[in-house]
Amino acid sequence: MHRIRPFRSLMAAGLSLAGVLSLTGLAGTAAAADDDDMAGAKYVAGTAFTLPGARAFPEGIAVDSKTGDFYVGSYATGAIYRTPAGQKAAEVFLPDGADGRTTAAGLKVDAAGRLWVTDPKGVMVYDIATRKRVAHFTVSAPEASLLNDLDIAPDGTAYVTDSYLAVVYRVTPAQLQTAIAAGGTGGTLTTAYNLTGVIPPQPARTVTLNGIEADAAGGYLITVDSAGGGLYRIDLRSGAMQKVTGTVSLKYGDGLHLESGRVWLAHYGNDTLSRLRLNADATSFTVERQVVDATLEMPTTLVRRNSHLYVVRSQFGKMAGGTAELPFTIADVTGF
Fold first, then answer.
1. Which domains does the chain have, with CATH numbers?
2. Could you say which residues form the signal peptide (predicted)?
């Protein structure tokens, strides 16, 4: 997920944004190993649903695996939108400024029916049934941090990236229950993994660690460094942190989805989607396919459900100036 900065300058990437270009040359012969539902499939990007409001500027997206409902957060206002399964228009689920939140970044729905929302300085947890905030965790030095994306591991532990500090915070199920019992006060987030020294050094306040996902077995995390272009693996058993080796840069990598040995990745700075194949122990990757599509309008995050990718069209380049195309929409991508 991305944050406010001179977005127009980010468009100076070395890939053309005119129309849609499939970069099959980067994939080598990997496409031959695609699953049947991907091999030779035609890339199509339509619209899944619309968002209300003139300044939605969406950032994060999550899907409730039990109900099929989608949740999308506004980076400009902090509002959260919900689209019931099968519907084409989102509704306001949590209004602008709810519980003092004016920005929403990462979103995730856990197995207990709670919605997790990050803003730059903290994490809020909501009971979906009541729309009430049940927990709130904050960072120790708000001026130095930029919380970004999060994921929930199979054991219920949440992992949150801090893009400025290059660390991953952890909220355990026990910590969450303690916060709920205390009326929602969760205290300060604790650092689980510090990737300073693992990722390339960057100037202060550079967006580094971004999208993050746990594998289905709960053995490791995958996260991407937006500035450095690297993919990283964190072993949840040993604590080992390492770069996932590959032959191409994943610069501008933002939200990602990990499933069955593949990673789907949105690149906010060049309107690109990547599909990567991990090796058996997730220590290296090959690029199966990349697509550049200007109609994705600065994609920040994505989720995958029933072989469809739902991609956030953020239009962040128009947040500080210019006219956004209304309504804001979430793309429905097939054949990728």
1. 7-334 (2.120.10.30)
2. 1-32
